[in-house]
Description:
The protein has 5 helices and 8 strands, in the order E-H-E-H-H-E-E-H-E-H-E-E-E. It has helices spanning 44-54, 62-71, 79-86, 114-123, 135-143; strands at residues 2-10, 55-61, 88-93, 106-110, 128-132, 149-155, 175-182, 188-194. The model has no long low-confidence stretch (mean pLDDT 94). It is α/β, with parallel strands linked by helices. The chain has an 8-stranded mixed β-sheet, with helices on both faces.
Amino acid sequence: MRIVVSEFMSLDGVVQAPGGPGEDTDGGFAHGGWSHPFFDPEVVGGAFAGALDAAEALLFGRRTWQTMAAAWPERAGDPFADRMNSIRKYVVSSTLDDSAPAWDNTTRIPGGEAVPRIRELRAAEGGDLLVMGSPTLVRTLLAEGLVDELRLIVMPVLLGGGKSIFPADGVLRTLELVSTVTGAAGAQVCTYRPAAAS
């Protein structure tokens, strides 16, 4: 399976709480919902829907999974929500246990087993394993060289600080820009893949 990361991102690289005010206030983050003014159904919505259509399964960190698990089951009956609810899901967590509230078709991966288990999933046959949000998990995947495609939906806004997906380990990682599309409100959907070693 290919691991594809899809993220809403500000120009200064922040991915924290794009969806709503109470989504993630860690560190005093006060700009929750910042992506909304730049969302257009054709380009941004199309990128999000296209990534989900190509996915065979979803991979989440605990916090993003809990946010999604609280939101999507209530929206059953909408085709996008029905896909979110029925698709196979994996959540990486050291704190959730099997008695946690369920979201259909979710398998928990214990935090200490995350990298080897995700390597196994990536080595398996199949479509895309899509990661949305989950900045801590994505940092680990990037650091471990486990991301096959990075789809950044970059919004024309500076947030001045917040969570990022990029490792701060001093390692040079070269990517190839595969495509870019600009939405009516200025958002750019930029698709990157790791550059082939020369």
